Amino acid sequence: MNAPLPEQALKQHLIDPEICIRCNTCEETCPIDAITHDGRNYVVDPAICNGCMACLPPCPTGSIDNWRLVLREQAYSVDEQFGWDELPVEKPLPAAVDAAAMQAQGPQDVAAFAAQSQVPTAPGSLVPPWSAAHPYVNLYTPRSPVTATVVGNYRVTDADMGSDVHHIVLDFGERFFPVLEGQSLGILPPGVDTQGRAHFARQYSIASPRDGERPGYNNLSLTVKRVTEDYGGQPFRGVCSNYLCDLAKGDTVQVIGPFGNSFLMPNHARANLVMICTGTGSAPMRAMTEHCRRRIGQDVNGKLMLFFGARTVRELPYFGPLMKLPKDFIDINLALSREPDQPRRYVQDALRERAADVAVLLADENTYIYVCGLKGMEQGVLQALRDVTGTGWDALHARLREQGRLHLETY
Question: So what's the pLDDT on residue 235?
Answer without folding.
Answer: 86
